[in-house]
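Take one record.
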Amino acid sequence: MHVEIDQPKCVASGQCVMLAPDVFDQDDDGIVELLDADPAPEHHDDVRESAAVCPAAAIHLAEK
């Protein structure tokens, strides 16, 4: 899995950070920051859920 984020679309809801804190973080303004663009398989389900619940659709996944 490869993860990309669209920071300009982010609305700082923080759902991704709560679901996958090893993959996502937030800057001082609450905007998403990507910690791991190629997360380990044990994080894939949480990352998929993060993308699904993101209110701004700012998380894009590519399955390898």
